[in-house]
Recover the amino acids of this structure.
């Protein structure tokens, strides 16, 4: 019997179940995404990123007292040791922002008082998970400052995660609308089942490595342009189009010449990305409020044309791109923003993997030569 018949193969593991989870569910038929049974739209519109992170890590929504205590812990743990900034300052100036964020997590890990605890210690893992979530916005915000020759700032304990990030990259108190949009975006990006980087994290910790190692593997995987870089590329595409009067001709040409169009389609959603549905509304409302309707108008043309001709809907990266641009967020940190939100999902999955662990070791289908004679070295061509 051939290997192919014994072990059916799906490129990219598309459609192949790789585990059981209680963390999130993608329902492609209903364009639905739920975190532990709660619709992501409800979490984004009625809750906060902190509530979402608590839900992912603690498996339930917090009470008022629990949320207050959680926010206080996050604020206390948000401060990074000086060694992190020393390491980031020593990196080449041309380093990719994701390299700095990954390095920040690598340097901070041994400073965690629970770092050396066994990977199977759930209580220690929960404390590590909260620290991993806490430092995300500080790592991204101050890494951005260091790359641009600015001194890192101390986080303010009264700030939320969204406020902390916006304060660190600008040095100014964030406006309420900017905070609201950033909080929604972070909630939408917080978790997404067995995506490439989350699965890589689970593979890592299945060896009984630690949560920080899993997070670093996740960040490294997210660094790739087929996973985390799509929001930045979507905005560069919109900037290339430039104005609504050029949008129809641009998309007509792109479709005719089979050009890659960023921000549309998703392997898991055939009827529209659940996250994009709500975030599109938020992004277009932001356009109206700021009086800058350029990107909304271009988006309307692209969305209608691509749906009509290709049957594809926007994914979350498309509205995220111009929402971030409207907030004047530098494009080179669009992917790190993905990281600072997704670390909550990474940590939740790492703990779930370790709670019922079995080493992840998939089968390969071999298609190479067999039973070759060993030739003497002087007889090899």
């Amino acid at each position: 019997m051939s290997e192919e018949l014994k072990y059916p193969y799906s490129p990219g593991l598309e459609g192949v179940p790789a585990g059981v989870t209680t963390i999130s569910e993608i329902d492609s038929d209903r364009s639905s995404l739920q975190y532990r049974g709660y619709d992501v739209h409800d979490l984004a519109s009625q809750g906060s990123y902190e509530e979402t992170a608590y839900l992912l890590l603690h498996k339930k929504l917090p009470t008022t007292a629990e949320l207050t205590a959680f926010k206080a812990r996050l604020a206390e743990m948000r401060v990074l040791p000086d060694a992190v900034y020393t390491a980031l300052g020593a990196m080449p100036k041309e380093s990719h922002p994701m390299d700095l964020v990954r390095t920040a997590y690598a340097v901070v890990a041994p400073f965690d008082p629970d770092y050396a605890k066994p990977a199977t210690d759930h209580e220690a893992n929960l404390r590590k998970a909260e620290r991993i979530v806490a430092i995300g916005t500080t790592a991204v915000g101050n890494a951005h400052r260091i790359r641009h020759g600015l001194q890192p700032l101390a986080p303010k304990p009264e700030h939320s995660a969204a406020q902390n990030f916006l304060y660190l990259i600008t040095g100014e108190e964030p406006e309420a609308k900017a905070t609201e949009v950033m909080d929604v975006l972070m909630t939408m990006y917080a978790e997404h089942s067995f995506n490439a980087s989350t699965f890589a994290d689970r593979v890592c910790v299945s060896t009984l490595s630690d949560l920080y190692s899993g997070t670093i593997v996740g960040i490294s995987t997210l660094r790739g342009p087929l996973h985390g870089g799509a929001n930045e590329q979507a905005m560069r595409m919109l900037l290339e189009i430039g104005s609504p009067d050029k949008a129809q001709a641009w998309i007509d040409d792109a479709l005719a010449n089979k050009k890659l169009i960023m921000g549309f389609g998703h392997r898991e959603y055939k009827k529209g990305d659940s996250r994009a549905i709500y975030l599109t509304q938020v992004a277009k409302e932001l356009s109206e409020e700021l009086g800058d309707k350029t990107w909304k108008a271009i988006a309307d043309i692209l969305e209608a044309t691509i749906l009509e001709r290709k049957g594809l809907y926007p994914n979350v990266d498309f509205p995220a791109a111009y929402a971030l641009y409207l907030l004047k967020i530098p494009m080179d940190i669009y992917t790190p923003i993905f990281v600072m939100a997704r670390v909550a999902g990474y940590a939740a999955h790492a703990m779930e993997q370790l709670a019922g662990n079995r080493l992840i070791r998939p089968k390969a289908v071999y298609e190479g030569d067999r039973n070759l004679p060993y030739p003497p070295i002087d007889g090899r061509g």
About this structure: The chain has two domains: 37-225+331-355, 230-326.
